[in-house]
Write a structure and sequence with these properties.
Oligomer: homodimer
Shape of chain A: globular
Mean pLDDT of chain A: 93
Low-confidence stretches of chain A: 1-8
Number of domains of chain A: 2
CATH class of the largest domain in chain A: Alpha Beta
Structural class of chain A: alpha+beta
Chain lengths: 272, 272
């Protein structure tokens, strides 16, 4: 199933690809990652929580829009997110989910129908795939994609603003650029506030508590070439860590890379 | 004559202040700089050239929009720029002009009526005052304004794209910021493409040919505090130098700081 470059392709064709992919996932025929698929379409991170935690988590997202850009939320017990696609069913439409009990991952499944309860609330958060596509369309090279590895992810000492049981440090992803490319990347990502927006830092990693840039929290050691500076964006791993730390009795998330493919175009998420 | 903060004030009141100031200048009663006056209103750099050079200079501006953002241009012999204000007369509406003969400044005058000819073409270029106001409204502190000095201006090795006799290096102004403030400043100024737009560089000055950051081309030695990086914007001094280098037989510019005060709001020049 081949994706198309967003914005340059035909809207209906891109939408068709997204719906077909979601259909394959729903039918249990696609169990792999969605990275790089259904190009041009917004993919989202998922968090599912019992409704008693929903108000606090929603507030946490609102207070920390850069790491937790909330782009969709369900009613309690309702697995639909019509704002992201008419037929979306959060119980079946991701290719792999992680189940958490008291903050510990206890399983990975490709369907959460049997875990779904009538007090479940689903949160869909914007993800960096959308802005990475915009950066690439502008001709910028994203190092970890160029090298075919996962994103370079770091723990910082920048606190999130807490809400109820939810708190913790901001997690960032790093992309190295020359200063002119970094400026262009800041310009572009600032137009995507719903998918992490502009970076939170560039340059000296120790200013945000990163002691060793060669040693990421996750991902390979990065290659930063002469004349390049590391640029740091708030990352969707932040809510995952926050959720684990909060040790809520029960929660479900997507497995990293296995995202919700929506019916919304990345281009629709640009503010200009 | 007291200005108002753009955007927060009443449009009509701000316009009134601009028109009154322009009236005082036209009448020869205000001969001083316009820096910080008629707040909220766009001020512009001026270049006046014989029409035989106009096409090349217009193309030079179009090819180099960051240092030379063209916001208004007259017809040959017509001193009006209705797009910037119904009653503007470029012969009388600036408080100080510089006259150039063969690339050398030969005089400063407060009225160029006696120099104006029916083959004269006026160019008005956007200036950094507009984006500095937007930065300050966002709470950012601009060091040279905080210290009450002129902008820190540097010669770079970044070439402009030539057009006819017009060519030369890009001149930049530098403002030091912490990385998060620099990111914010990039976000904000990228929304003002008609007043220099986003910076062209940050960090290591030698990457753009600046050997000694402590020794600007003009302005005092800057204070760059620990944790700050220098951020460099293309500067309106660029066309002045280019004009001098081109050694056109006759040209007139504004005197730095003595700008054309227009009827356009800075807010109108924001793309979002």
């Amino acid at each position: 199933m081949d994706g198309m470059i967003g914005g340059s392709g035909d809207r209906e064709a891109m939408l068709q690809v997204a719906r077909e992919l979601r259909g394959e996932i729903r039918a249990g025929r696609w169990l792999d990652r969605t990275t790089g698929m259904a190009r041009g379409m917004v993919q989202g991170n998922l968090v599912v929580l019992p409704s008693e935690y929903a108000a606090d988590f929603q507030k946490f997202c609102e207070r920390n829009p850069k790491p937790c850009p909330l782009i969709g939320m369900t009613k309690p017990g309702d697995p639909g997110v019509p704002v992201l696609g008419d037929d979306i069913d959060l119980r079946t439409d991701l290719s792999c989910y992680r189940v958490f009990e008291n903050g510990t991952a206890t399983g990975e499944v490709s369907d959460i129908s049997r875990y779904w309860r009538d007090d479940m609330v689903g949160f869909v958060l914007g993800c960096s795939y959308s802005f990475e596509e915009a950066l690439m369309q502008d001709g910028l090279i994203i190092r970890h994609l160029e090298k075919g590895t996962k994103a370079y992810v770091y723990l910082t000492n920048v606190p999130t603003e807490p809400s109820g049981p939810f708190s913790g440090p901001t997690i960032v992803s790093m992309r190295p650029f020359t200063p002119p490319d970094a400026i262009r990347a800041i310009e572009i990502t600032s137009r995507f506030p719903d998918v992490h927006g502009a970076p939170i830092h560039f340059g000296d990693p120790s200013m945000i508590g990163i002691e060793d840039i060669a040693n990421p929290y996750s991902g390979q050691p990065p290659e930063i070439r002469p004349g390049e500076v590391p640029v740091f964006w708030a990352c969707g791993v932040t809510p995952q860590i926050v959720l684990e730390e909060a040790k809520v009795p029960f929660a479900i998330t997507h497995k990293p890379g296995h995202m919700l493919v929506t019916d919304r175009l990345n281009a629709e998420f640009s503010t200009t």
